[in-house]
Design goal:
The complex is a heterodimer of chains A (160) and B (661). Chain A is 64% helix and 0% strand. By secondary structure, chain A is mostly helical. The chains are: A mainly alpha (160), B alpha+beta (661).
Chain lengths: 160, 661
């Protein structure tokens, strides 16, 4: 279904000549800084694209952001400071992994809540069925006289 | 004329669908065999008319009849024939027509092969199936008619987006739709059972093959789409957690859960209510997927608001079917009797655990996909939920599932022996432990600490699947001939399960290999220069231009050497499609075992140098081989005699299943 996203993307964006994401001239000489820049790029959204990180995107804006990230890193910013800087400038929208806040609490806690509620529900159901079935099953394991007679008859037929 | 014929056939199909939606259900209520029997022929007739409509549109495409708006907008006379045909579903209207075509195929299949279904169930199922058909055929006719004409026919079409002119893409949407729409059968069975207020283990036996079929197509479709994205998009990604991908992944997760819970229901007559609910949810997620993709709501909430006709229509369908289905469920589910008690540690318990985690994983994807839309609609605030979020939340839910997976099939029904199963899995755990140690040693303490454990987990899953077969055949304990005879005697569904689990292990191995060990080189090369990655040297030899059927191509020629020996050439290219003025990047792939070299082109610089992006992707092919193994497992299970659709049943059970007439 990815093609549909692409159709939409390509129809909404002007058909720009495709170049790929990180350009050779952007790469920093310092390998450690470059690794940090790449890791940061993967967490940041190209805001004119549909669900692409600036690391993946070939849009001009993504390139600007990649260069900006590298500039900040070279200026000595920590990863956290780079993120803060970009959020201050572009808003929370730039983060592909939203930060935990009252607005995103449901997003972050939702999955865990589903799991816990599901597990609790199962626990309750399991306890209830066991409570209901315990006496019943004890009775069920004993055959009634009629059943015993039938069993004997069946066994006899088999032997005979 | 042909377009009008197609349009007319579609209207007739709607008429038949209306009859099929009402008459059989009245028949089922009144227990009138004549009215119930209407369902079969109308289902087949509906399929025939929709097939005529689809064929008509295809003919318009093949003939490049640009007086039809849809053909004009999405085709071009110079396009190769195969892309003229695939262009039929490369657009909104055509893909909706494909959707209803597949819906009617499934309906017709139930009508033709459902002879052994109880008459009432069959009538109800086909009627519900037709409700869906009515809704979507009406949607096409009212908002998305592919047969509209242009008064003055243009001379040439606008062409299909070049990125869609690809063989992988030609088969991807039909596969995915077969999966999406196949789940409608499980939905119809669930609703029919609720209407009737009666459900038994036999119901699960009928539903399971249909779900399995849909699941197989969904698996293949998702894998195909992923591989297509990998080789087309040029940056080597294969899964993006894009809303459009999530739209197909959620039904897959739900269908997987449904397959497992239907197993419990079939074998032990337990989890009835839950299975019904899952069947409703799985198809609901398919509908939500269709809504997300088809309404334009993903591009922007505002775009949706400015042209809401289609979106609102699909939303109405969504509310009607999901809301209606769940309401009916709430009303009728308490009537269904639960059966089949089991201890927490048992095969049933393991399958419940599987369902708990799969549903939670599905909920994660659901919340993550819809949260930004909901937040923006409610508060106007814009946030992004992308791959980093899903990686952080999805993995913790899937890892416990994978750890538990080898245990499930080895546990006994009703009451299992966890310690005994653990003992039988010692071999598998040993293999995993040795792998972890070996990888630790190989990496020499460098690299992420989790990688060896993740690889170990993948091998545990795979070895666990093998363990099941070994245990059941007694291999290593009994003479080989006996084990072989037992292996042949094992139910095909057992083999199917083992294959599917093994396949998931393969996927995991590929995912870890690709994400953790992939190497990337970005370089600018002049002719004659070499770029090296791992033990491979790629020499840039120069550029050539070539003329394709409807594009011009600039191909770069690379000679690949390993330890100085030439092992092949790679020719990545950039294609220019003049009809739309769009350029595409054609990556070059070289397969080495399960790994691949991946080369894509950037722009040539004025000084004659060329930017290239080169990857070495270890084990990457396993990501798509795994799903194929899973689908083989599905096919094996489907060929199991008990499940085979339309397989003759022993005379006694047949008599018992069919009500007296």
């Amino acid at each position: 279904m990815r093609w549909l996203a692409l159709v939409v993307m390509l129809l909404t964006l002007v058909a720009a000549p495709r170049a790929f994401a990180v350009q050779p001239d952007e790469i920093l000489g310092d390998a450690a800084l470059e690794t940090r820049a790449r890791a940061l790029s993967k967490e940041l959204r190209c805001m004119v694209c549909q669900n692409q990180s600036i690391d993946d995107s070939d849009a001009p804006l993504a390139r600007d952001l990649r260069v900006l990230v590298r500039e900040r890193l070279q200026a000595g910013d920590s990863d956290h400071e780079v993120i803060e800087f970009l959020v201050a400038r572009y808003g929370e929208f730039v983060l592909l992994k939203p930060r935990f806040s009252s607005r995103t609490a449901l997003l972050w806690l939702g999955p865990a809540a589903v799991l816990l509620i599901g597990a609790f529900g199962l626990f309750v159901v399991a306890r209830r069925t066991r409570a209901n079935s315990a006496p019943a099953s004890a009775e069920q394991t004993k055959l009634s006289p009629a059943e015993q007679a039938r069993l004997a008859a069946i066994l006899q037929r088999r032997q005979g | 004329m042909i377009a009008e014929l197609g349009h007319y056939a579609l209207v007739l199909a709607l008429g038949l669908a209306l009859v099929q939606a009402c008459v059989p259900i009245v028949g089922a209520r009144k227990n009138d065999p004549v009215l119930m029997a209407v369902a079969g022929p109308t289902a087949v007739g509906q399929f025939c008319f929709i097939a005529i409509a689809f064929a008509a549109l295809t003919i318009c495409y093949v003939r490049s009849d640009f007086s039809v708006v849809n053909v004009f907008e999405n085709s071009h006379s110079a396009k190769p024939l195969i892309y003229k045909i695939t262009g039929v579903w490369g657009n909104h209207e055509g893909s909706m027509l494909l959707w209803v075509l597949i819906l009617s195929i499934f309906g017709a299949l139930v009508a033709l092969f459902g002879g052994n279904l109880p008459a009432r169930l069959r009538a109800n199922v086909l009627a519900v199936q037709s409700w869906i058909a009515v809704a979507f055929v009406l949607f096409i006719l009212v908002t998305s008619n592919p047969f509209l004409r242009i008064p003055d026919a243009p001379f040439e079409g606008r062409d299909l987006n070049p990125i869609l002119q690809d063989t992988g893409l030609a088969i991807h949407p039909p596969l995915l739709y077969l999966g999406y729409v196949g789940l409608s059968i499980s939905f119809s069975f669930a609703i029919a059972a609720l209407i009737d207020g009666r459900i038994d283990a036999a119901w699960a036996r009928w539903v399971r093959p249909w779900t399995l079929l849909a699941w197989m197509f969904l698996t293949l479709g998702i894998a195909m789409g992923s591989y297509w994205a990998y080789y087309t998009l040029g940056w080597g990604g294969w899964w993006f957690w894009d809303p459009v991908e999530n739209a197909s992944f959620m039904p897959w997760l739900a269908a997987t859960a449904l397959l497992h819970s239907a197993l419990v229901m079939e074998k032990r007559n337990a989890l009835k209510i839950w299975t019904i609910l899952l069947a409703i949810l799985a198809f609901s997620l398919s509908l939500i997927g269709t809504f997300l993709v088809r309404s334009g709501v993903l591009t922007s909430v505002h775009a949706f608001a400015t042209d809401p006709t289609r979106g609102v229509f699909i939303l109405a369908i969504l509310v009607l079917f999901i809301g209606g289905g769940l309401a009916l469920f709430a009303l009728r589910a308490p009537l269904l009797k639960q059966g089949g008690l089991f201890a927490p540690v048992s095969r049933e318990g393991a399958l419940v655990l599987n369902n708990l985690f799969l549903v939670s994983a599905c909920a994660t994807v659901f919340v993550g996909t819809l949260y930004p839309l909901a937040l923006e609609a409610l508060t106007g605030e814009k946030i992004s939920v992308g791959a980093p979020f899903f990686n952080a939340t999805f993995a913790p839910l899937f890892i416990p599932l994978l750890i538990a997976m080898p245990f499930g099939p080895l546990l006994a029904w009703k009451r299992g022996d966890l310690l005994g199963v653990a003992q039988r899995l010692i071999g598998a755990a040993g293999i995993a432990a040795i792998t972890v140690a070996v990888i630790f040693a190989m990496e020499g303490g460098g690299g992420p600490i989790l990688v060896p454990f993740a690889i170990g987990l993948a091998l545990f899953v795979m070895a666990g699947a093998v363990t099941e077969i070994v245990e059941r055949t007694g291999l290593l304990k009994v003479p080989f001939a006996t084990a072989f005879a037992r292996a042949r005697g094992l139910p095909r569904s057992t083999w199917g399960g083992a294959f599917a689990h093994f396949g998931l292990g393969i996927v995991l191995l590929g995912v870890i290999g690709e994400t953790q060990w992939s190497v990337e080189r970005i370089a600018e090369l002049k002719p004659g220069q070499t770029v090296s990655i791992r033990r491979y040297d790629l020499q840039f030899d120069g550029m050539t231009t070539r003329q394709g059927p409807n594009y011009r191509e600039l191909a770069a020629h690379f000679i690949v050497r390993r330890h100085g020996e030439v092992i092949g050439v790679m020719e990545p290219a950039k294609r220019n499609f003049p009809s739309r003025g769009i350029a595409t990047t054609e990556t070059a792939l070289m397969t080495r075992g399960f790994s691949q070299l991946y080369l894509s082109l950037g722009d040539p610089n004025p000084d004659g140098s060329l930017a290239v992006r080169l990857y070495y992707k270890p084990l990457v092919l396993l990501i798509w081989l795994g799903p194929i193994v899973m689908v083989i497992g599905g096919a094996l299970s489907l060929s199991d005699r008990r499940l085979r659709v339309g397989a003759p049943k022993p005379a006694r059970s047949k008599a018992a299943l069919q009500p007296a007439e």
